[in-house]
């Protein structure tokens, strides 16, 4: 799985509200989305994040793989992260 | 001190007068009165007693500058005005031409020159930008329907059809261009600007230039909600040094003297900013700059008075404005005063 660098302009609030200070765009993410973004902010490897989610949540590997990919693609589309 | 301000028409497409006054009043350094100069007896700002002390109807500059000057002279005899801040596009040429006569009355202004006003006009801006390496959508100026046939060979559809002062319509084919040409030219005259459509997000900068090429302050904003008239009804301050540096470059090249609003579009593919328009006065959202830490309206007053003004070099990012409407209740006596006498006070 590719790794991503979160934009330095992205502010993540405790309640899952995202504010991109360079563009004024705002988004909301759910609890797990916020969890992933905070891990990414701490420079945790995507593979590690995947393993952590598998441990902490009741989810099958296939579903997680698909959902995580979708989420990362969305972050990339909105330019909230950069692929590295 | 007495400051007279125009554009207090806080309607659904509000003028910048009321937010300019809010900035001045909230500077902490202003202890004086504000005079509202209005064109219509029902301009809401005139009835806002925390904003305006006295109001006077003035004639439109297009009705003749002598008439306007005589009216201001009369108002000045009663009020002894220190500074006039015109805030509406259509009156700026007139006030710029009256600058020296106003100065003789002891009234100070801080206005762009008529040459600068011509340069930033919708019909001249593209040439100015190309000369100074500022990206701008390509355009043609149409003075007759014949000119419209040119666009099929020059641009892909859609294109933006703009009036020389106001109005902009996106046209998807030649028929829509003809329709827009007719409706806009009937309202605003010729030429009509037909502009290449740049796909992307719009960003605005409110700024103040000292007339020598220096930018006193500049605040970037992204609209969060737009009305059906295309007016921003809420917006948020953003942090993009590229945008602010570009605004400063424009202010430097044009040596802009006064407040201005720069409208940009960030092209989707290249992420580069194109200058769409330069409005020659503060925008109606100028109070957001005050809230974000750059009191540009009060800085303009200080510049007009010849006082030293330091540059602002930062502002708070993530400040939001949300505009709202409010029914102000007043007595018919006030409406009577302004309608019959052309003046009223809010005491």
Keywords:
heterodimer; A: 84 residues; alpha+beta; Arc Repressor Mutant, subunit A; 3-stranded antiparallel sheet; two-stranded antiparallel sheet; 46% helix; B: 347 residues; Rossmann fold; Dna Ligase, domain 1; D-amino Acid Aminotransferase, Chain A, domain 1; 6-stranded antiparallel sheet; 5-stranded mixed sheet; 15 strands; 25% strand; globular
Report what the structure shows.
The complex is a heterodimer of chains A (84) and B (347). Chain A is α+β, with helices and mostly antiparallel strands. Chain A contains three helices and five strands. Chain A has helices at 31-41, 46-56, 61-77; strands at residues 4-6, 10-12, 17-20, 26-28, 81-83. In chain A, the strands form two sheets. A three-stranded antiparallel beta sheet of chain A has the order 2-3-4, with helices on one face. In chain A, strands 1-5 form a two-stranded antiparallel sheet. In chain A, a hairpin with a 4-residue loop joins strand 2 (10-12) and strand 3. Chain B has helices at residues 17-25, 65-79, 89-104, 114-119, 125-131, 145-148, 150-154, 174-188, 241-254, 287-291, 296-304, 332-341; strands at 2-5, 33-38, 54-57, 83-85, 139-142, 159-162, 168-171, 192-196, 200-210, 215-226, 232-238, 257-267, 273-279, 320-322, 343-345. In chain B, helix 1 crosses helix 11. In chain B, strand 1, helix 1 and strand 2 form a beta-alpha-beta unit. Chain B is built from twelve helices and 15 strands. Helix content of chain B is 33%, strand content 25%. In chain B, the strands form three sheets. Chain B has a six-stranded antiparallel beta sheet. Chain B has 347 residues and is of the alpha+beta class. Chain B is globular. Chain A binds chain B through residues 9, 11, 19, 21-26, and chain B through 201, 203, 221-222, 224, 235-240, 266, 317-318.
SSE pattern of chain B, N- to C-terminal: EHEEHEHHHEHHEEHEEEEHEEHHEHE
Which two protein chains have the largest interface (Cβ within 8 Å of the partner's Cβ), and how many residues from each?
A-B, 9 and 14 residues
Instruction: Report mean pLDDT of chain A, rounded to a whole number.
Output: 93
Q: Output the radius of gyration of chain B.
A: 20 Å
